[in-house]
Amino acid sequence: MPLLYSNFTPSLPFKNGHFNTIYRPLFLKASINYKRDRVQTWDHDFIDLDFSITKSKSLVLLIHGLEGSSFSNYMVTTSIYLNNNGFDTVSMNLRGCSGEDNLLLGTYHSGKTDDVSFIINYLDKNYSYNNLIIVGFSLGGNLTLKYLGEYTNIPDLVKGAVAVSVPIDLTSSQAELLKIKNKIYLLEFLKTMKNKILAKAEKFPEFNIDKKLLAKASKFRHIEKQYTIPVFGFKSSEDYWAKASSKPYISKIKIPSLLINSLDDSFLSKECFPYEEAKKLNNFYLITPNYGGHVGFLSSFSNTQNNWLEYKITQFIKEKIDLD
Question: What is the spatial distance between Cα 58 and Cα 84, in angstroms, rounded to a whole number?
């Protein structure tokens, strides 16, 4: 029964889920020196990997969330914390998220695990690590869990995973994001996504979009209709949500994996808290702290006390995953 106890008790303002969600990207600053490896993909595109090396035999692959990058605060702080605890890290920038537009019309989506599989196989073949652990945040966490349950040819190098603030059920979580409480977040996501789609339309004139409709888009469904569905071959938004969600794949995960979803995460529906799966499965662990917001998990205004999430990730790797 791998339901793990959470002792996360932040100070008063950080007990507000929205405050915890917003504070990290707006006010926390962290810097890191990466070494970039540009990987040429099978379909004549590229994916940028950013390494932070301590000469460890264990490598942690970090995957960011929607419209994030290797320089998102949670990616940087997790990399630094893991480095300080004896792990090398490599941050995967999803296509079009590394600061340079990718070469193809298609970028990424919540269920595009072929890129994750490709990168893991690339790391297995080109680097001499004994262990690989995957850590995904939000959309990156959905990719992580889906990959682990979807693929049957996962390299032995992959020993475990941690997923944080994950909308494992996209149908219900997208409905949650349409609620008034999430309007500011939704508008921010849509703004950056619209700009990227417009840039793609300029780069690929044959890609016909209705710019007026795109400008009026107020739901993910509107973006999906013009971009995700036609570009990636889905039948509808409902088809995309069903096929891209990681929840149906959790029962098929074979290696130790942890999901951390806070109960006050305003992005998540009740379907995103898989208690029954965690009770039944030996390798799937779940932590649902009362507080934390969406990829927040900050406890105070003191940066030295704001490492609960990074600590939990590292603790799980050290205590629950068999490392060579």
Answer: 13
